Amino acid sequence: MFSLRRTSAIVLRQFYLMQGSPARVVPLFAWVALDMVTWGFITKYLNAVSGSGFNFVPSLLGAVLLWDFFVRVMQGVTTTFFEDVWSRNFLNIFATPLSISEYVSGMVLSSIATSSIGLVVMLVLATAAFGLSFFFYGVLLVPYLLVLFLFGISLGIIGCGIVLRLGPASEWFIWPIPALISPFAGVFYPLSTLPGWMRFLSRLLPPSYVFESMRSIVQKRPGSPFALLWGAALDVVFLLLASWFFRSIYRHAVRTGLIARYSAESLS
Description:
Number of strands: 0
């Protein structure tokens, strides 16, 4: 039976780790703050030199904020998992009555906590320092964040499964995933600028619908609610696939005994 108490133990462990290590706390807000400052000044510079009257703040700085939120969500999941990888703690974790669903739920709750810190920092900086008003996006800001959150959770779980199967050294395959996806998601430009094969892949990624809708609002064109609904439906598909993938990898690792031989380099 699913136990919220055992799930909360995963979150509590992350809290204790951060409490005893400022090096774990600073990255929660430092990198997103740096991104906000850098892109904030870029947008102000573009506003000054373009002469077109177009406001780059809600289009570019808003896109950076939403994309950074997605990255923080994904890394919130994977970092929670990597803490057990780095400490070789799997045997201790899974020798307890903790189920795989409780463990994954704990990673998701940890990600909610850590990504919320980054989101608050970004909102404060973008609003106070660069005048980004989120009333510009209206109530659509909530589904934007929700679609990106669910996709970040899905990719985080998939990344954890890859590392569980291939070993700790494969974590370096996981960190670049957001950078590899961003050209297809159309974070800074419309999908119409992409070649056909890239547009096809973009339509399979939920974030592409968020950023297309955001650009429509910035250009004062009505966004399509059906596009966001389609993005949310894709999120559900990704989340189900991610859960199935991680559970399959975990069962394989337990059945073959690989989890007991989890070394610093690989599972072999």
